[in-house]
Amino acid sequence: MPSLCGVCSAPAAHRCAGCQQVAYCGRDHQRADWKAQHRNQCRRFKVVRNDRLGRHLVATRGIKQGEIIYRDEPYAVGPKIANVPLCLGCNRNLMPLWDGSERFYECSRCGWPLCGQACEEAAQHRAECSVLGGSGYRPNIRPNPADPERRESAYCVIVPLRVLLLERTAPERYATVQGYESHLAERLASPLYGVLRSNLVPFVRSVLGLQQYSEETVLRLSAILDTNCYEIRMPERHVKVRGLYPLGAMLSHDCRPNTRHYFDDRLQMVLVATVDIAEGAVIHASYTQPLLGTVQRRLALRQAKCFDCSCERCADPTEYGTHTSGFRCPNCRRAVSLVLAAEPTNYRGVWRCQNRRCAYQERPEQYVARCERLQQELLALDRTEPGGYEDFLARHTATLHPWNAYILQAKYALTQLLGNSRTTAKAPSEADTRRTVELCRDLLAVADRLEPGYSTFRTKLLLELCAAHATLHSLGVLSDPERQEWHTVRSELERIAKTDPTVDVSRVSGQSREETEERS
Ligand SMILES: C[S@@+](CC[C@H](N)C(=O)[O-])C[C@H]1O[C@@H](n2cnc3c(N)ncnc32)[C@H](O)[C@@H]1O
């Protein structure tokens, strides 16, 4: 059927180049529609549904690496189910009052802790303040110098309350949220939902007096939040909260994502393409960590998001040739053979040596026990000392693939530790700096396969590598090939920084931000 003009329904000759979704009979109608409405509706994607992913986003035209796919305004932002004391006005972690009272500033109306008087008027606090204040309940949230990281469970009510209040202030948003995926039946069987049933539900219905919301409505809302919220981390602003985003709630997961996201000053979630995305391709994010093996990623996704991932990485026993889950066969002493999952997306599948002449195999529970031992070993290391991580690597090079997840975690931790000690040392060590360069190159080869392009993982490694080059330069020992590599890395970081203002190249490039901006 020929396309019809979106304005006058006459036969249309061309489509909007931005989204390819609307057709026009000519330029005049396209211009008029742009001014009237399309400016706010033109999108590079559409929401579709299939059996495997449920609703998800698909590109309606080719999207270039670094392009902003969307900016998403949150429906609700606030503390996690248990959170360190934070301000209900501005989301920042709280500082105790200076008057020696060992208290936080408390809102004059509802008594919940805030930064100060100005935050009493914050838009996100206003509606809830009268409900919280009217209840007569006062939370006992005090500074805890002995354990400043202690998380308070009283906060579990705040984000659900903010969404419930949308029914009065933004009913269309409230209705949209009710249609989000919850996985309620599965979540109800978990211990956490037992606790929410006995704490959160009576708090909302009896303490806050919101009797109109049934137990099921409150628990479903909690499940919707657990399935769809994103963690918002802004360390420089001391913010670590969760947010519910309408487009974020439609974004599917893939263990090799083609996007990254950041949060701007207004806490909008900005989704950026990390690689070129072809028209018709799924636009996805990663809900998990790249440096986990397939079993651990899939278990984490099952537990947090209630689905079994079967993406390309999960289905590939070699995980794009990285062998992140692989270990060396204990039977094959002469040749180096790997043990890999026979059926990676089957939790009950066996692990087999890849050498056809070897019969070694491991049951899944043996494999999981092996992983747990390695995890415990890593967790027991002194996180301030590179030596323990180097010993871990030396201990396991004979038994694990050099890109095994636990080896990668130790290598990544080392880059962070060596980077920190370089910035605090009066005289950074050349040997440690060269070790950082070596580790970053190795990890970047993994990142190119698992999270290519402008991904968060690759960007962090490029920043570490760039900082190490700058140190070698300041020590006067940077070789010509290293100088060339430094230049290439810096140029790529400057391109990434243009797509994501949270990436600060001047901090690591050994030159001022002004110089960086002048060059680019
Ligand atoms: C943020 S929601 C995404 C939107 C959801 N598909 C919907 O229809 O409402 C997250 C949920 O989507 C589904 N999902 C996302 N990525 C998936 C994937 N790679 N495989 C299977 N299910 C996935 C899971 O049910 C997950 O809990």
UniProtKB/TrEMBL annotation:
PROSITE patterns: SET, ZF_MYND_1, ZF_MYND_2. GO terms for molecular function: N-methyltransferase activity; protein methyltransferase activity; S-adenosylmethionine-dependent methyltransferase activity; zinc ion binding. Residues 5-42 form the MYND-type domain. Keywords: Metal-binding, Zinc, Zinc-finger. Gene3D superfamilies: 1.10.220.160, 6.10.140.2220, SET domain (2.170.270.10). Residues 497-520 are annotated as: Disordered. Residues 43-288 form the SET domain. The keyword Magnesium does not apply. This is MYND-type domain-containing protein. It comes from Anopheles epiroticus. The lineage of its organism: Eukaryota, Metazoa, Ecdysozoa, Arthropoda, Hexapoda.
